[in-house]
Q: What sequence folds into this?
């Protein structure tokens, strides 16, 4: 590690002000940032902790029936408090990492980091969620822009995520045993006006929607509707855990499992 300053604001306004400092960086649960600092892959002069901001914590519902989760809410709280309103989302949160990660990691930190194998991006994109910041609201379809890349601007903080609740939904993932990240993860959600299928862990471009599967499932929400469909291996991640062809195959398998469980 190296020397840096650390502040713990108690409001969003204080955090935004602190982030205007040169070389300042926000930190939520630190599950990604702390290892990055240890390896000196990032060297901010100031860390602005978001953990003391109570106004961006908690789970509730709004007048539109959406599940609204504060950006500073830990995974374990989402798993516990969202279950009555959005079981598929709560189950996803319950299966992130291990108990220590679920206690410290936050939904806002996960979405801001946009790791290509993280679970929450699939939930947000698959649900058609709205990411709320201190400055604006961003539709999930516009928010995710590639590996570790989002629509967030410098100094912008995720304060809340609003999830429309589908008629049926399920998240399934094929876990990489060492990291507990998804080698391939698929979130399927059926709404009155259509189906959304979001895939994480597979693509070199990060989380994406599998539109061909959405179209097939819109008229027949059964895994049999996916017969003959496949995603191209081009653009899939290839590493020591699996070839692009293997990941492309897994997308179809895991999507089928998610649909069967949701239906």
A:
């Amino acid at each position: 590690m190296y020397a840096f300053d650390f502040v713990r604001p108690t409001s969003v306004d204080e955090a935004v002000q602190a982030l205007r400092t040169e070389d300042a960086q926000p930190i939520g649960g630190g599950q990604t940032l702390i290892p990055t600092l240890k390896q000196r892959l990032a060297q901010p002069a100031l860390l602005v902790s978001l953990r003391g901001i109570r106004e961006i914590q908690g789970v509730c519902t709004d007048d539109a029936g959406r599940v609204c989760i504060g950006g500073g809410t830990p995974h374990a709280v989402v798993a516990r408090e969202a279950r009555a309103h959005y079981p598929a989302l709560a189950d996803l949160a319950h299966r992130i990492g291990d108990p220590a990660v679920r206690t410290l990691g936050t939904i806002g930190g996960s979405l801001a980091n946009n790791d290509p194998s993280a679970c929450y991006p699939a939930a947000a994109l698959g649900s058609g969620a709205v990411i709320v910041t201190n400055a604006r609201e961003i539709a999930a379809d516009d928010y995710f822009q590639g590996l570790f890349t989002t629509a967030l601007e410098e100094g912008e903080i995720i304060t809340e995520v609003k999830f429309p609740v589908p008629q049926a939904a399920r998240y399934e993932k094929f876990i990489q045993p060492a990291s507990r990240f998804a080698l391939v993860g698929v979130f399927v959600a059926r709404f009155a006006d259509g189906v959304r299928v979001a895939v994480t862990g597979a693509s070199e471009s990060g989380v994406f929607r599998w539109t061909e599967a959405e179209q097939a499932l819109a008229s027949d929400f059964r895994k049999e509707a996916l017969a003959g469909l496949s995603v191209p291996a081009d653009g899939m991640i290839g590493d020591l855990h699996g070839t692009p062809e293997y990941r492309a195959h897994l997308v179809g398998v895991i999507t089928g499992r998610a649909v069967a469980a949701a239906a």
About this structure: The chain has ten helices and twelve strands. Residues 5-48 form a domain with the Uridine Diphospho-n-acetylenolpyruvylglucosamine Reductase; domain 2 fold (CATH 3.30.43.10).
